[in-house]
Each structure stands twice: as structure tokens, then as C-alpha cells.
Amino acid sequence: MATQTLITGAVLIGAIALFIWDRLRVDLVALLVLIALLGTGVITESEALAGFSNRTVISIGALFIVGGAVFQTGLADQIANRILKIGGTSYTRLLLVLMLFVALMSAFISSTGVVALLLPSIIRLAAKARLAPSRL
Description:
Elements: H1 2-21, H2 26-39, H3 45-50, H4 55-73, H5 75-87, H6 91-106, H7 111-128
Helix pairs in contact: 1-2, 4-7, 5-6, 5-7
């Protein structure tokens, strides 16, 4: 048991170092951690693959796909332009319009779907209004 703890700690420290180094994508580092723990026998094959059948993991993967599609098709720009037309560049008005828009959408689709659809639009909107996306 102590050996597995040491291996896990070493892999964790290595992962943190790779995150700080920022030369590899985060998903690749995560896969390297999985491979390292599997290769050293800390986890079994079934434990390594168990996370991929989790609904949350699948939902987040789908969120990235939908968000990318919204961005690539130009829908993000269209939504951002409409919200910008209504809210102007005032932070308070934009926030109010966004809250109303999100509340309306959430009444009909899941919160995950709303995030997938609006995240690229809000990033575009913030850039056009010269606001930090984190404020919206």
C-alpha cells in the first residue's frame, strides 16, 4: 500500500509540474496520468475506464462539441450581436439582458445545454463590448 501511495504522489507531482510547465494540453496530461497509474498497477483496467462511462464526463464532452459548433458556424456572433443590440455596451444592461435570456432558455432546455450554447456567444459579446468575459 505504501508503494502505491508513493507512486500516486509522484504521478500527482509530475502532473502538477506539467500543468505549470504548460507545454502539453491539459487533456494529454490527464491521459498521461491515467496511463502512468495503469502502467504501474496502481489502478486496474476497469478502474481506468470507469470514468469514461460516467454521464457527467459524456455531458462535458458533448458540451465542448456543441460549443465548438456554435463558435464555428457563426451562431455565437449572431447571438452576441442580438444581445449587444438590446443591451448596448453598458455592463449593467448587458448583465440584465443576459440573465433574462439565460432564464428564458433554462425554462426549456437543461442548464448544460444553455452553457454549451451561450458560452462562446458570451465570450464574443464581452470582446465586442470591451468587457472581461469573467464579469459576464
